[in-house]
Every structure is written in structure tokens, then in C-alpha cells.
Amino acid sequence: MTNPTPWWRDAVIYQIYPRSWADGNGDGVGDLPGITARLPYLAELGVDAVWLSPFYVSPQADAGYDVADYRDIDPVFGSLSDADALIARAHQLGLRVIVDLVPNHTSDEHAWFQAALAAGPGSLERDRYIFRDGDGADGALPPNDWSSVFGGGAWTRIREADGRPGQWYLHLFDVKQPDLNWENPQVRSEFEDILRFWLDRGVDGFRVDVAHGLVKAKGLPDWSGPMNMLDLPDPTQRPPMWDQDGVHEIYRSWRAVLDGYNPRDAEGYDSARDRVMCAEAWVDPPERLARYVRPDEFHQAFNFDYLNAPWQADSLRATIAASLAADDAVGAPTTWVLSNHDVVRHASRLGLPVGTARPNGIGADDTQPDQELGARRARAASTIMLALPGGAYIYQGEELGLPEHTALPDEVRQDPTFARTAGAELGRDGCRIPMTWEKDSPAYGFNDTGRTWLPQPTEFADLAVDQQVGVAASSLELYRRLLTERRDRGIGGGSLTWADVDPDVLSFTIRGTTGEQTTMLANLSAASVTIPPGHEVLVDSDPDGDGTQVAPDTAVWLRRTS
Ligand code: GLC
């Protein structure tokens, strides 16, 4: 039967960070068999799909975002047959599987990069990457002034086969992540092949890493501005390494590959079988991001403006309205997200003073977030997010209310940013701590040996899954309730009308695909707000909510009684 609403338009997708979700073999790093065994938890949570961060062969210089072989699994995570088993089990449970595609760069240990080093300047092998001669009389200066997103310069000089200092190669990220040259036709056809490889294995789609970075401005002009586009004072400025118009043609060709697995014009087309792509594109303003989700490109693109919006009703309102308007103009849904493996978890972020710029990690010497306030606001933030029309991503552990680890010792940090900035940026390890399943098991149930690649803080114990299941006031039960109501009331596919309340109160009504209306009301003011007459509470982010008042920093879903 043909499903009228393609599944991805309102899907809730759960991000699994394979290193840290479930460890089947007890070596301290999560793996695919561990994940497969735990999948029923996600079916019970009520999500539609999982996205797995990279599990490919990799030296793990950037936790797997440095891929040495796109068609095989790193032994630390398992094997291809483990991947097949995971996909099959997920499908059996009604969960779709999205895998991570990393096209901006490979690992320096990828066969292509090794061949490029061996082949010498001007070779076809070098042309698959971005090699240039250096500046200055003896080529000792980098070809331009770009910096790496992880700190330090974006160019590294190699030694040629004869041992002499040679050309430089571009790496927008770590030195072990050389950027590919997307002007090269071999690069293009290779990635179309990689897409087919995984589609043939049964995956339902791809999350595309650094989707705004593949094409660089001609001539690689200097750029001294910020490396994060979302930090640009003037969002109409476009750095030469990001959001170049040439990327779109690549995504059109990929969309054609995906659509080939479920042709729209064929008899028996079923949108339930759509294969999808989601862009990780840190792009502003929303109209530029919307270009990635035009009908023949990506299906989804993470809305990072929303993730970055301060805890203020007017900012949230403006961000939501601008995103919906920009995406509506191209007929695309908006894809909401609050946390992922790259940012301080929202349960901690929202416990920092309002207006604090999002830090890259929090350490023991930094001002600590107010955990109680952060947890309260995080529950409200998720209650807002899951009421919004469009898709949503949940990052593993956020459903438990897990905070950031804010006291990791420096010696365990693994994010390349930490070393590349000599500790000035702590990096992302604090949001990547192994998951917590059972309070009284080794490693809180992450495995049965107690080994973990990053230490778990003791406050994770009381947040373990087994402490929350069936506890009405828990964060986990709040998420389950939100996901159930969201589905039953057709909220994700619905349309939004703003409600006019106090400026510090964020409120809108969704007319769901079932015809039912749900009002979301979030109180970002300092005083309680009375629930409007003729409404009753369906879901309350506040475990102490009394059904008549919405306390500060809490949110409710309401239905009409009259
Ligand atoms: C993306 C990933 C991040 C990775 C970077 C380089 O931003 O989400 O984890 O470090 O790309 O691949």
C-alpha cells in the first residue's frame, strides 16, 4: 500500500555513537553486536530509525570520521556480517538504518592517499586530493592561510619519495584527514559506488558528514575569518571552504542514485521504501541551508541554528519561524536537533547562564553548569522540539537526561582538537561517554567487564535505563510519552500556528495529520503561567506539574476539552 506521507518527513531518528552505546565483547569500546542486542530498547522508546556514526575501517584519529576503507567495518566494531545482522534485526523491529558517509576527507591511511604520497607531484593519484606547492622561495610556506577546524593550520607538508620536503596537502580537520578533490571524476564515481554498496546491503539512508565542505572556491583564496560559518558576524559572507554552489550538483547525482532504489515514477512506488540523505551542513542563513533540501537534493538537513538558539522565547520563536519559512519555500520539512556527538549535551548547555556562547567542551576548571536547571530546561527543550512539525534527531542518552561529563581528566581526552589547540579547546569527549543501562552492573551495563574507553561519571548511575523505566517522573518516560503522543496525534506531519501569549512564553498549536490539535506551551519567564481555560495537560515536562500551572523552565502539551 502506498503511504501518503514519506516516512522521513516526520521521522524521529536516534543517533547511536557506536563507540559508546553497547559493548558486546567487553574491550571497552562499543561494537555492532552490542548495538544489535540492545535494539529492542529503541523499538520500545518509539523512534523510527537509527543513525550510526561511522563504523568503517579507520585508525580512529577522529573517532572513525577518518575512514581508511568505506566498504568494510573496523575490527573494533565487528565485521560486515555483524553489520548485516544489525540491519536485519533493526528492520525486523521496524527500525530503519541510516549510516554515516564521510566524503569531505579520507584517512591518510586510505589506499588512495598512500598512493598519492608515492606517486609524486602532478600525478593522477595526487589529483584525488588537494595537493599544492608551498609559497615562498623554497615552498616552505603553506599555500594559503586557512586554519583547521580542529585548530592549527589546514595544510601539512609532506616528504617526497626522495626524502626532500615536498608539496602540501589540505586538511580542513586533522592532519590525518586529507581533503578529497571533488573536481576529480574518480572521486565522484567512487562515492556513488560507495552509496550503492551500502544501499545494496539494505541501509535506508545516509547522514552526510561536512556536506557544506566538499567544493572549495576556485583558486583557494585566503580567509582569515572564523572557521565555523555559524559564528560569522555577517551570515551573507561565505568562506571559500564552505557552502560553495558547486556542492549541489554532487547531491543531485546522489539523490538520483538513491531514488533509483525506489523510482518515483514506477508502478508500485511506495514512499515507505524511500532511501534518504540528511546533510550535516553548518550553513547560515536558513535560506542557504534550504538549498540543500530542494526536491532533488537532500531529504533532510540538521537545523543547527535551532541547536544554537539561546534559551529565550523570542530567539526560539524567530529561529523556528525562519527555518520553517525557508524550508516551506522549497517544500522540505525542517529537521530539529538539540544534541549530537559534537556539542555539549543540552542537559548541561542549558544549565549555563543564558547567552553563554556554546563552549567546545567543559572542564573541571570551568564554570560548572547548574545541573538541576539544565536538566529542567533540557526536558522542556525536548518537549518543545518533539512538538515541532518535521523530523527530529535524538542523541543517545539524551532521553535519559544524561549531562556532559564536565570533569574528564586531560590525560583521557581523545578529541584531536584538544591536542591541536594545546588544551585551549577541550573538545567533544565529554558528550561521548559510554551509555548507562543498569545502575549496579559493571560500566553501568555498557559491557560486563567494566572497561570503558572514557570514564563514566558517578552521577550517571541514577540515570541508568533500569532506574527510569516505568518511573513516571523520569526523563525516559517523558520521551516515551512525547513520542507516543507525537505519533498518535500526527504532530510531525502537522502544521503550526503561533499562539499569542506573553513574550517570554513560547506557544504554538499543531494541527496534526489526524486532525487533532495539540498546543505546546513553554514557560521561559520567571513566573508560573496558568494553563489556558478549556485545555487539559497531555504531557508535562515538569514531574511536579499540577495540571493548572506551567512552572518556569517547563513545557506542556495541551489538548482542548471544550
Ligand atoms: C563532522 C562530524 C565530526 C567530525 C568532523 C570531521 O562535523 O560530526 O564528528 O569530527 O565532521 O569529519
Largest sheet: 8 strands, parallel
Broad structural category: alpha/beta
CATH architecture of the largest domain: Alpha-Beta Barrel
Strand fraction equals: 15-25%
Which kinds of small molecule does this entry bind, naming each only once? Answer: alpha-D-glucopyranose
Task: Give the CATH topology of the largest domain.
Answer: TIM Barrel
| Overall helicity | 10-25%
Name of the level-1 CATH class of the largest domain: Alpha Beta
Shape: globular
Strand order of the largest sheet: 11-10-9-5-2-1-13-12
Q: Helix count, per DSSP?
A: 13
* The CATH fourth-level homologous superfamily of the largest domain: Glycosidases
Pfam families: Alpha-amylase, DUF3459
Organism: Branchiibius hedensis
GO molecular function, one term: alpha-amylase activity
Protein name: Alpha-glucosidase
Keywords:
Oligo-1,6-glucosidase, domain 2, 5-stranded antiparallel sheet, binds alpha-D-glucopyranose, alpha/beta, single chain, 3 domains, Immunoglobulin-like, 20 strands, 562 residues, 13 helices, TIM Barrel, globular
